[in-house]
Each structure stands twice: as C-alpha cells, then as structure tokens.
Amino acid sequence: MFDVFILMNWIGLFAFAAVGALKGKDAGLDLFGIVVLGVLTALGGGIIRDTLVGEIPAALTSMTDVSIVLCGVFIAVVLSRSVEGALIDHPALLTADAIGLAAFAATGALVGIAAELTVFGVVVLATLTGVGGGSLCDLLLTRVPVVLREDFYATPAVIGGGLCWVAVVAGFTPTSAAIGSALFVFGLRMLAVRYDWRLPTF
Amino acid sequence: MFDVFILMNWIGLFAFAAVGALKGKDAGLDLFGIVVLGVLTALGGGIIRDTLVGEIPAALTSMTDVSIVLCGVFIAVVLSRSVEGALIDHPALLTADAIGLAAFAATGALVGIAAELTVFGVVVLATLTGVGGGSLCDLLLTRVPVVLREDFYATPAVIGGGLCWVAVVAGFTPTSAAIGSALFVFGLRMLAVRYDWRLPTF
Amino acid sequence: MFDVFILMNWIGLFAFAAVGALKGKDAGLDLFGIVVLGVLTALGGGIIRDTLVGEIPAALTSMTDVSIVLCGVFIAVVLSRSVEGALIDHPALLTADAIGLAAFAATGALVGIAAELTVFGVVVLATLTGVGGGSLCDLLLTRVPVVLREDFYATPAVIGGGLCWVAVVAGFTPTSAAIGSALFVFGLRMLAVRYDWRLPTF
C-alpha cells in the first residue's frame, strides 16, 4: 500500500515539472530558464520544507527525484511543440497535478509530524510542499502566485495537512494517515477543478 | 522588565499580521492569500532568521505566536469592513507597527549575538527580523519592497541591531541591551513617521 | 596556487557588489536599498548555499567578505556619479564579474562535494552560488531574472559545476578541480560576452 504513495509522489514530480516547464516556455524563457522552472516547481517546495526542519534537502542527495523531473521537463517541451492546444490545461495533466498536490501535501505533513512541529507547523509544511514550488515559479515570472488570488488549490493541502495531523494524534500510523489524507486532498482538488470552486475575497 | 519586551513582541505580531492581511485584502487576494500574507508578514522574518542560524523556526514549534497572528488577521479583516477610511494608515496601527519593528529588531539582534555572529551578521538578523516579513509580503504582491525605495523604516532596525551588539560587547546583559535598543528603535521610527523622514537617493 | 583562487573570489565579491549597487541606483532605490542590493548580489548566493547544506552562512561569521562588498558598493556609487556612460557595461566590470562567476561556481561545487551531494546537487550549488545573488537582486526589483531569459551566464556555472564534480570523481584534488573548472567557466563566459551567445528558446 505504501508503494501507491511512492507512485503518487513520482506522478506528482513528473506533472509539476511539466507544468513549470510549460509556464517557462509560454513566458518565452530560454532553455536554462525552462529547466529551472520545471525543477523548481517540482522540487522547490520539498527543498524549502527540508531546510526549515534542518535537513539537507533530499532532492540534492538522491538522483531518483531529479531524474523523474528532468524527464517531465523534456517530455513537456517536446509534446508542446507537436500537440495542438494548450497542454497546460489538458485533463490528464490536471489530474496528474492533483495527484502530485495530494502526495506532496501528505509528505510535507509527515515531515512536520516527524519533526514534532505544532499542528500549525504541520499545516505549513504540507502547504509549502504542495504549493511552494509553483509559487516560487510564479514569483520568478514576477506574477502574484495564483494560489493566493483565486484558486481552490492550496485549500485542499491546508485541510489535508491538518487531517493528517489529527489522524496521527488519534492513533493511526503515519503511513495510513498519509495515504488517507492524500486521497482526501486528491478528491477535494478534483471536485474543485470539476465545479470551478473559488475561495471568497473580501 | 523583560515582560515588557515580550509584550512588545506580541503587539508587533498582532500589528504586522494586521498590516499584511490588509495589504492582501487591498490587492484583491482571496481568503487563503489574505491569511498567508498576514502570517508571512508577522512570522516570515523570524522564520528566515532561525533558519539562517540553523534552528527549527520557533513559529513552527509553539502555538503562542501563531495564535496572536491569526487574531490580528481576523480582527483586521473584520474592522476593515466596518471602519471608514484606510485602516492601514491609522495612527494606532502605525504605533503598534513601530513597537513591533523595535521588538523584532532587538530579538533578531539577540539571536545573532547568541549564535556568535559578527556585527554585520547581528545587523543582518536584526534587520531581517524587523523588515523581512513585510518585504516577503511585498514580493508576493510583485512590488519592490517599500523599505528599499523610500522609507525610513529599515534604518532604525539597522542602527538598533548595531547598538544592541555594541551594548553587549560593552558589558550590558543581553536583556538590558535588547530593551535599550528596542526603545531606541521605537523612538527613531516614531520620529520618522512624525517628520516624514526619507533616506537619500543618488 | 590556491591564493589565486581566493583572489578570484575577492574580485568577484567586489564586482558583484558593484553590479548590484548600480542596479539599485538605476532603479531609483534609496541608500538602504542600494546597499542591500549590493550585499545581496555578492553574498546572497553563498548564504542560500550554506543554508541548504545546514551551515551558518560564512558571510555572517567573518568580516572579510562583507568588508570587500561594502567597498564595492561604495566605489561603484562614487564612480557612477563622476564617470560618464553606463558603468554597468564597462569591460573592466564585465571581466571582474566573469572572474566572480567562475570563482563562485567553483566554490559552490566544492561545498556540494564536501557535503556529499549528488552531481545534480553539486551543479545546483555551483549555479546558485554563481547566479543566486543576482537573481535575488532582480526579484527584489520585480524583474524576471535575466539568467532565465536570454543570457549565456548561468550555463558556464552549470557546466563548471559538473566539470568540478567529474574532476574530483576522476581523482583530482578538490583544489585543482576547483581551479581548473573556474578557469573553464571564466573562459566560456568571456567568449559568451565577446560573441554575444544566447541559449535557444522554444
């Protein structure tokens, strides 16, 4: 069952890398910029997370993640030149992206729980892991991160992080808490895409 | 006497959170964006500071600070809907913000002194703790941080950080050095607000 | 021979500080903003690098680097008021900047190798040390970092980082690997300036 969780993380790395690379391409960046945006979108949230809890980022000490990310960047750039229409809004990519959001948020929550943070700290790590990379990518393109403005994208990660913390406090194993909250985040995000949910402004 | 210093930090957390939330609201962000900007303005400088000296950020391991911050965000949003005129320029908020700048700068200097940094390192931590959160907030809104452009806001923190270092080197206890430099920063900032001081450009 | 490498780092600190300060001055920042941009351009990449591998940034614990940086800021501002024409494009500054890029990339690679990162991690640290400070400076001015868009500036650092890793794996001492890759980065960057190289866009 834990294998499913690892697979979700890999799908997420691939999808996030593709999204970042496509954003870079659409903004007219050069080859280096496109690769940086893909890498940062996929790995940036996890790197900030690991740094916050005082660990050397896992992305810099293992070749697995970065290999998947570079594949995602490469395939996205190649496909975007041959496929008609906006690849970045393709249902397959939106679904893979939601899988990534779910897996990343749950992974972030697990790291926060292992570091004995408060529920606030756990939610911050879950959210940062899920949306931090994409927000960094937006910042490098000098755009207000879309998650702050009008989407229902960070909210599932926030709720999922809290849920994972509650489940562990209630006695579930971290693994089952992570899988449960990941499934919840994925379902909530897919509903938000389907029905075009927005958070209120004031 | 140290209780006064803790109280100044709490007032600062409240005021910084309110300022960040109001900036987010004025920029048309959604609920998540408003909360993120409030939290980041109040806690972002301290989180960067703790990370730089290799500690897990205190804001992620204690519920005290974040509770005050969420109160500040909530009250600012509620008040901004019922009060006429721009809340963000209200004298009470400007004063509370100056108290926060003073307490944060002194706290940052203490952390730098405890980590045995150079005077430059101490000044950097004092300044980052005082103005780092607000600058992150500006960056997320894709604005050049106002402290870099035209205000007399970071300068009191810079001088206060140096003063705190000098006082500790001269034999004062860290606590009295922090309180003394915090009072100095507060006074200097209030004078700058009162007389509309600016730093020169070239 | 290692003295040459230290000298290259010093020239780089001076040049990067000057470039950052001139960018700040051209953007109309005040005195504090100009100093921050100079300091951040010169020291920002190294500070991020040290934080990622879990060390307190060297720039905060030694006065050597920051002294050179403040000299660079001061001299750049003074010269820019008396010299005609754009100082920032002056061949002497471009050359000193290329020396800095080379020394910083090699230093970053050495730090990554010492922390036992993967080749990807080593390349990331080399690149961040070389172009991270300048990119932070661009971000604070709300500009898409120029290295992501159209320059041949980060590429030498990327290749140099990989080269340094290969050389160490092949049995060269870290010192000779660093000097060799620094010379390579410098040569490649000067060629790029001379012939106006660009990376492809898509």
UniProtKB/TrEMBL annotation, chains A, B, C:
Q: Which UniProt keywords apply?
A: Cell membrane, Membrane, Transmembrane, Transmembrane helix
Q: Which cellular compartments is it found in?
A: Cell membrane
- Entry's InterPro entries? Gly_transporter (IPR005115)
Q: Which residues form the Glycine transporter domain?
A: 7-80, 95-166
Q: Write down the superkingdom of origin.
A: Archaea
* Ranges annotated as spanning the membrane: 6-22, 29-48, 60-80, 92-113, 119-141, 153-172
| Membrane topology term | Multi-pass membrane protein
GO cellular component, as recorded: plasma membrane
PANTHER family to which the protein is assigned, alphabetical = INNER MEMBRANE PROTEIN, UPF0126 INNER MEMBRANE PROTEIN YADS-RELATED
> What is this protein called in UniProt?
Trimeric intracellular cation channel family protein
- Organism (species): Natronocalculus amylovorans
